[in-house]
């Protein structure tokens, strides 16, 4: 009996958006209008690439970025939840699927000493260039019309499950914990026995209820959460069964 926990990162594990938080490093803690207005829907990663160039051009170094990123607050109860999962790793496999980037997630999880809870992190690859600029790339290419160009979370989840099956690992239940519009695609892939846990009041919850109103409900069960304590209560019930 093993459960798979799939976490989004921004506004789920942390209570902010890591990509917008980095703007605190910019001169006057804001971006020029031209740069801000250069974002095109579905092309967030390219936009962030331009933000990182701007920060680099303004002399923002890796140390300052790291210091800023590690001040992001975790969502209420999240550190306790991750501790609980860590204590029950024989029952839970745990992955992150996020539109953030490897550098930010790595810094934040390591600073809070909870990186070992996660078996794998699927996010946009980032690194510092020889000139000290942070660069970011698309996670993968895909053909899903519903998802941003750089990341289809359904594809990531499906490929992970296929790989696990090849290793002889299958899951009693998948628990998907997220908040955003790009979490809907993987949630629609979940089966009847699985559970989606959208954050209360956020886009994912609204999109799931809109589908139900349109009589196209998702197959899985849905349980909204407002604090990670709600998620922990559910997981405790799960392992008692």
TrEMBL record:
InterPro entries: HAD-like_sf (IPR036412), HAD_hydro_PyrdxlP_Pase-like (IPR006384), HAD_sf (IPR023214), Pase_PHOSPHO-typ (IPR016965)
Record keyword Hydrolase present: yes
Active-site residue numbers: 8 (nucleophile), 10 (proton donor)
Residue numbers binding substrate: 19, 99
Transferase keyword on record: no
Binding residue positions for Mg(2+): 8, 10, 179
Keywords for the protein's UniProt record, in alphabetical order: Hydrolase, Magnesium, Metal-binding
Cofactor: Mg(2+)
A Pfam cross-reference name: Put_Phosphatase
Gene Ontology terms, MF aspect: metal ion binding; phosphatase activity
Entries under NCBIfam families matching the protein: DKMTPPase-SF, HAD-SF-IB
Family membership noted in the UniProt record: Belongs to the HAD-like hydrolase superfamily. PHOSPHO family.
PANTHER family referenced in this protein's UniProt entry, alphabetically: PHOSPHATASE, ORPHAN 1, 2, PYRIDOXAL PHOSPHATE PHOSPHATASE PHOSPHO2
Protein name: PHOP2 phosphatase
Organism encoding this protein: Sapayoa aenigma
């Amino acid at each position: 009996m093993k459960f798979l926990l799939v976490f989004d990162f921004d506004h789920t594990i942390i209570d902010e958006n890591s990509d917008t938080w980095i703007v605190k490093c910019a001169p006057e803690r804001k971006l020029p209008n031209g740069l801000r207005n250069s974002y095109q829907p579905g092309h967030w990663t390219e936009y962030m690439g331009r933000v990182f160039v701007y920060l680099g051009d303004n002399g923002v170094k890796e140390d300052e970025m790291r210091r800023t990123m590690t001040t992001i607050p975790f969502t209420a109860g999240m550190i306790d939840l991750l501790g609980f999962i860590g204590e029950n790793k024989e029952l839970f496999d745990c992955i992150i699927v996020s539109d953030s980037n490897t550098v930010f997630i790595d810094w934040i999880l390591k600073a809070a000493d909870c990186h070992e809870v996660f078996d794998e992190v699927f996010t946009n690859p980032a690194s510092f260039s020889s000139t000290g600029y942070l660069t970011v790339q698309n996670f993968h290419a895909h053909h899903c019309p519903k998802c941003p160009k750089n990341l289809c979370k359904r594809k990531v989840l499906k490929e992970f499950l296929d790989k696990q099956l090849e290793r002889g690992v299958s899951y009693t239940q998948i628990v998907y914990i997220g908040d955003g519009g790009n979490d809907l695609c993987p949630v629609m892939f979940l089966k009847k026995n699985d559970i989606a846990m959208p954050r209360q009041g956020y886009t994912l919850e609204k999109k799931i209820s809109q589908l139900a109103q349109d009589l196209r409900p998702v197959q899985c069960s849905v349980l909204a959460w407002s604090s990670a304590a709600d998620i922990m209560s559910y997981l405790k019930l799960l392992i008692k069964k």
